[in-house]
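Re: your question from the hallway

Yes, I did run it. Sequences:
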Amino acid sequence: MKMRILLVCLGNICRSPAAEGVLREKARERGLKLTIDSAGTGGWHAGDPPDARMTKAAARRGYDLSYQRARQVAFSDFYEFDYLLAMDLSNHTDLLDLAPPNRTCDIRLFLDFAEGDERETPDPYYGGADGFECVLDLIEKGASGFLDYLEDESA
Ligand code: 4NP
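Structure:
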C-alpha cells in the first residue's frame, strides 16, 4: 500500500516544510513511492512560502522547498493520512487533542523513529542561523529512521 505521511509543526513554515522536502528526497533516493505533505497546527502563515532562512539552508543541502505553501491541519487529515508525524511534544499533544475518536491515522513524534536521544525538533524561528542547521541535521536523521521503519514494516 502507498503510505501517506503528513509532517506537522506549529506554523508550517520552518520545520515541517523542511521535513517534507527531506523525506521526499530520501524516499525518492530509495525508490519508495509515498504521499508526503506538511501542515501546521496554527493557521497564521496559511498560504505563505517556507521561511526564507530555511529554504536557503535546505537548498544548500539539495532539498527544494520553494514550491511549498503553508496550510493548517484539517479534519480530513486524520483520515486521509496513515501517519501524522509531530515535530515536537506540543505539536503531538495538540494533534491528539484535535483528533476525532475514530481517526484512522497513527499520530507519532517524528524523532521517535530516529537514532539518538532527542525526541523533539526545536523551533528555529526566533533563533540564529545555526538553529536551522541543527534542525536540518535532526530532520535528516528522523527521515532516514522513519524510512527504515517503513521498509522494515513492509518486509
Ligand atoms: P514552525 O516555526 O512551527 O517550525 O513553522 C514557527 C514559525 C512561525 C511561528 C511559530 C513557529 N509563529 O508563531 O509565527
